[in-house]
């Protein structure tokens, strides 16, 4: 399934886009803007990067730039003669929409951290979700200048909330921006460059100039997972991207993603994604949502 770029119209005198979607949701696509998406009416499968999950009414997600995504509704939302009964609200803005250094202001430190995480996509839940939904629904009937102040209220919530989960794995994205921690930043860059080959721990210790114990402890503390799991996530995420492109068969994808044999690839893929590569490919490419059974 080929990904395409889709851009919403933005009036030249607007700093951001507020869009009331009442037509069929866009198919698998990306764009350079950050995007906050609220599904007011709809149910089906949400695809974000290499993450596949069911969604229903009041689904709320925040997506970083160039992250491929699609909300694929059940057939019953599509009516004869191209009719559609789904509905959504969308906010889009570029990183420099409010000035080159707006998000780098000291007061926006927490918000900037959230924006960095959103490059993998975030699903928002809990009381934070309820507050943001209320603000977005109020924006429908507002003048543009008042919408701006509501957006700043949303920024305040996004910068202070613990109620979200990361969706896509980092390897699905290009380019990937690593941590500011220089030794581990160099390690991450090395992993992303050579993950398709065997990576030896001694090489990483030399790059980071750390001892074995310090390296593994620091890595897990910073990335909230072990090095082994991180490398596996990189390889599986890359495999998911290849599965979505429909170019290679599964055996080729296994070797292209850094796995030495197909059986290990199938086992590790299922342990991380809850399904086999073949099942994932069918789910991702299916145009019939009611045929997709989620793990």
Structure description:
- This protein is of the alpha+beta class and 295 residues long.
- 32% of the residues are buried.
- The chain folds into two domains: 4-168, Jelly Rolls (Sandwich); 171-291, Homeodomain-like (Arc Repressor Mutant, subunit A).
- The longest helix has 19 residues, at 227-245.
- 40% of the residues lie in helices and 18% in strands.
- The strands form four sheets. A six-stranded antiparallel sheet has the order 2-11-4-7-12-13, with helices on one face. A three-stranded antiparallel sheet has the order 6-5-8, with no helix packed on it.
Write the layout of secondary structure elements.
Elements: E1 4-5, E2 17-21, E3 29-30, E4 34-41, E5 44-48, E6 51-55, E7 60-63, E8 69-73, E9 78-79, E10 83-84, E11 87-93, H1 109-117, E12 122-124, H2 126-139, H3 144-158, E13 164-166, H4 182-194, H5 201-208, H6 212-223, H7 227-245, H8 250-256, H9 262-273, H10 277-285
Parallel strand pairs: 1-3
Antiparallel strand pairs: 2-11, 4-7, 4-11, 5-6, 5-8, 7-12, 9-10, 12-13
Helix pairs in contact: 2-3
Feature tags:
three-stranded antiparallel β-sheet, 18% strand, disordered C terminus, Jelly Rolls, Arc Repressor Mutant, subunit A, alpha+beta, globular, 40% helix
């Amino acid at each position: 399934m080929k990904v395409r770029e889709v851009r919403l119209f933005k009036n030249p005198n607007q700093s951001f886009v507020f869009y009331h979607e009442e037509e069929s949701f866009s198919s698998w696509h990306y764009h350079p803007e950050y995007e906050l998406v609220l599904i007011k009416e709809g149910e089906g499968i949400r695809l974000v990067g290499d993450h596949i999950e069911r969604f229903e009414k009041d689904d709320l997600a925040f997506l970083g730039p160039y992250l491929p995504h699609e909300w694929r509704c059940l057939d019953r939302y599509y009516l004869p003669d191209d009719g559609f009964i789904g509905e959504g609200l969308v906010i889009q803005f570029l990183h420099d929409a409010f000035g080159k250094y707006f998000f780098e202001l000291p007061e926006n430190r927490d918000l900037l951290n959230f924006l960095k995480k959103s490059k993998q996509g975030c699903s928002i839940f809990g009381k934070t979700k309820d507050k943001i939904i209320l603000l977005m629904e109020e924006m429908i009937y507002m003048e543009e200048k008042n919408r701006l102040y509501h957006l700043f209220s949303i920024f305040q919530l996004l910068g202070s909330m613990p109620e979200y989960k990361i969706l896509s794995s980092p390897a699905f994205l290009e380019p990937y921006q690593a941590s500011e921690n220089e030794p581990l930043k160099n390690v991450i860059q090395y992993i992303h460059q050579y993950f398709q080959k065997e990576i030896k721990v001694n090489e990483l210790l030399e790059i980071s100039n750390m001892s074995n114990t310090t390296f593994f402890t620091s890595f897990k503390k910073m990335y909230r997972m072990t090095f082994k799991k991180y490398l596996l996530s990189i390889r599986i995420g890359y495999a998911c991207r290849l599965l979505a492109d429909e170019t290679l068969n599964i055996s080729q994808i296994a070797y292209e993603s850094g796995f030495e044999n197909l059986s290990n690839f199938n086992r590790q893929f299922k342990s991380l994604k809850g399904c086999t590569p073949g099942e994932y490919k069918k789910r991702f490419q299916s145009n019939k949502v009611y045929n997709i059974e989620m793990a």
